[in-house]
Amino acid sequence: MPILEKISQPLQARHWTDSIPLEYHYTAGVAGEEFRRELKENGRFLASKCAKCKNTYVPARMFCPSCFIEMKETRTLEGPGYVYSFTTVNRNRTGDAAEPVTLALVKFDGAKGGIVHRLDSSDSVTFGMKVVPVLKGPSERTGALTDIISFKPA
Ligand SMILES: [Zn+2]
Q1: pLDDT tens-digit map of 72-93
Q2: 16 in a domain, yes or no?
Q3: How many CB atoms lie within 10 A of CB 99?
Q4: Residue 103, domain extent
């Protein structure tokens, strides 16, 4: 059947089933790499600052989502974060969890965005509660978000 010939009956279309082997490597991007390097080497969160709108974003990113311009200025966040939102889950991928896990969106004063991670304080979590990260030791860090063990009340 020529390629330009119109098919009037769907069952006339040829098809086959096969698989295509794919390999890929995930990269965090330029700003993501810098964020991870700062977390690994210095245990701090890197944020990007927009020269036009003056907003600061965490985690660091290359372009301002408001102005669409490249952000070249970075800074590390000082002080504790705060619980913007949270939820407690009782199930995991395989069924019931051994213990409930509280996950929180932690934001930082003066910065947009935030970090979603475990929160060690399931009994007394409140919105706005000040929290600090609990990090792995410097020699154990790999530059991944799992370098953060959890957040805990400040
Ligand atoms: Zn901006």
Answers
A1: 999 999 889 999 999 999 988 8
A2: no
A3: 6
A4: 26-153
